[in-house]
Give the backbone structure.
Amino acid sequence: MIHAVIADDEVLARQKLRQLLRDVDDIEIVGESATAVETIELVRAASPELLFLDIHMPGMDGFDVVGALSGENLPLPRIIFTTAYDQYAVRAFEVNAVDYLLKPFTRERLRTAIQRVREQAGGQSQSASHANGSGSSVHLYTNRIIFKSRGSILFLPVSDIRWIGAEGNYVRLCTATGTHLLRETMAHLQDRLDPRGFLRVHRSFIVNLKYVKEVRREANGDSVVVLDSGHKVAMGRSYRSLLGDRLQGS
């Protein structure tokens, strides 16, 4: 059972969400709040696994709530933002929100968001089972990169990314159908990606291992990673043995 809190300053919005959740068997609403302060106090008291969080609320906004809860020695619930404003989507995913629902959203769209919560919960349970009681924290890796492009908000599955290249203060995400440039650092992006699927092979390049065909030494002595598309990505000398070990172990 997933215990959830609904935080929204509009009574009708809370009622509608509660109705939509009524036939979701594994969601139990343990509380509702109308302000940021109430939300923080309720999460402290109820320790829910899921928080449906509006962004515009009296006093502090939804991001202030996340910041306040993140600073405490308590498990942070998974967050699904529910809002009428689309301009905060990128920021929402920067604070690791599970999903971002634009009002009015449908029952089907809500179900998709809840399924993502289930998948994350399942993944965390598996990771925790491999911790062997060490008490180490569980790192949840992103499965989508969200960014603005030409006035739209794009949700790019990381599984579609073949390789990533650094370009100054930006990174270029390359897929089978095109490329996307976003303002991000390689180090921060690398930390968000599951190392079981992505590997840094050069200070300026990261590759998706499922698209790697071979590692080849060119006539000039330089090593390159060859993808299944035929594209070549430069490989730094210090990364060659690491990739070789990963490919042999896969």
